Structures are given as structure tokens and as C-alpha cells.
Amino acid sequence: MSHDTLPHPVKTGAAPAARPDGRRRRHWTQRPNPLAGLGSFVWLVVVIVPIYAMISASLTPQDQALGHNALKPPSSPTWSNYDTVLHNSFFHLLWNTVLAAAAVVVIVLVLCVPLSYVAVRTRGFWSGAAFRLFLLGVAIPAQAVVVPLYLMITKLNLYDSLLAIILPTAAFAMPVAILVLTGTMRDISEEVYEAMALDGASPTRMLFQLVIPMSKGGISTVVIYAALQAWNGFLFPLIFTQSEGPRVLTLGLFNYMSQFGVNIPALLASVVLSGIPIFAVYLVARRALVGGLMGVGGK
Q1: Which of 23, 67, 147, 269 maximizes the CB count within 10 A of its CB?
Q2: Do 41 and 89 fall within a single domain?
Q3: 3-class DSSP state for residue 257?
Q4: Residue 6, pLDDT score
Q5: What's residue 21's pLDDT?
Q6: Residue 258: its H or E element
């Protein structure tokens, strides 16, 4: 006696529900987000409007600066303010700033790359404690230790020199640099380390042939961050320098201020010229910067 066998139902994934007009419903990630678009537009306005106002005011003649609406184009634009800036020790200030920024970047990379590598590859109480000690520097503002720093700078006979700007700036950039680099280096697979170890690679060889090439995003982020700290630094140059020799761009803004008034158009023209080099660096390395920041949180 034969029994009819019923076929087993085949399980299939649920198809997207069809709309009455025959089109499939789009996934939620594909839906437009008007709130995000509105927020992006507002943020764009917040960023662009001050830049536009600064450029507009820098092209305004000095005798019209106080009565000029910065949101309107100047009625008689002039380049005389930029000419004043360029002939007022601007290139000397720019050279000092470039030297300070380059030195800070070199010091931070030379110290933080090996330290981050040791913190990632070493398992132990002391390595973890040293890593947390470095991160503690993120919570210490420069204003809180400026007096001890001043005493150290004067005792080392570094006062009124570029080193008085470079060394503290590099020290305060190191905690964030170590945080970024350790986050990037932790993304490197353990199997890659083991493969190089089987080939007889030493820790130093792993650092230069594996870790550094695979951490280019984090290193680029650290380079931009350290350069920005030196480029925009104001507190250390103000307190640790006095003469014109080691003066940098941020202190050069005082050239347009006096007890009788402020040359606002020339001051803003100096700000515009000072921001062009670092903005160009950001445009070149912006992808690496974003990739390095994303690596901080891990995969």
C-alpha cells in the first residue's frame, strides 16, 4: 500500500512587500533623511558665513571698516591690506611657524610611534599603566601648568627661542597622538604578526615593515593634528618668547593692534593668509585624516 508523500515546504527569505503600484518598498537605509540634510546645511552656513565675512572685511579699505557690513561685498575692494601684511615681516613669521610645526611633527612621530607599538604589543601591568599615564595628559590643560613650564624653560636657558615653543607643544600633542596611533595599530590582525614572527622577524623589523606601512592613516592624522597644534598655538609663544626673532604667525597679529586702535582689515588679511597653508595640507590629506580618526574606535 503506497502512501502519498507530501513535499517539504521550501523555506525562502521573505521578499520585500510590494506597493500597490507594483514597486518594491525601498530599504530604510535608502530613504532620504531630510533632518540630516537640514543639519548639514545649517552646519555649512555656520562654517561658510564667518569665512566669507572675514574675506569680505579683509578687502575693505581701512577707513570704511567700521561702517562696513561684512555680509555684503565691499563697495570698493582693495588688496592694500594684503600688501601691508606681506610687507610687515609676514614671511619671517611664516618661516618660524613652519619650522616650529615641522619640528613638533618630527618629535611627536619619533616618540609616539614606538611608544604606541609597545603599548599595543606588550601585555602587562606596567605597559598598561604607562599607557593610561600618557592618556592622562589629555585631561590636563596647558593653562594649569604654564607656571612650572615657564620655570623649566628659564632654567634650561630656552626662553625666547623656538625650542621654548616646540618642546611644550610637542609634549601636549603626544597624548592624543598615542591615542590615535594605538587605535590604528590595534586594527592590524594578530595573524600577520604571527606570520612575520615565524619568518624570524624581530620586533623592530615588524615595526618598520609591518606596523608603520599599515598605520599610514593614523600617522597622517597625527601629522595634521600636531601641525595644527603648532600652527595655531598662541599661549606658549606669548609666554615663552619676547623678541621679534622667534615670533610666529599667531603673535604677528599684534602688529596690527596698538593703544590707539586696531587695523581690522589688515588683521583679517593676516588671518586669511595664515590659514591658507594649513588648509592646503588638510585638502591633500583629508582622506587619510578621516580614515585615521575612524580607526581610533577599532573595527
Answers
A1: 269
A2: no
A3: strand
A4: 46
A5: 47
A6: strand 257-258
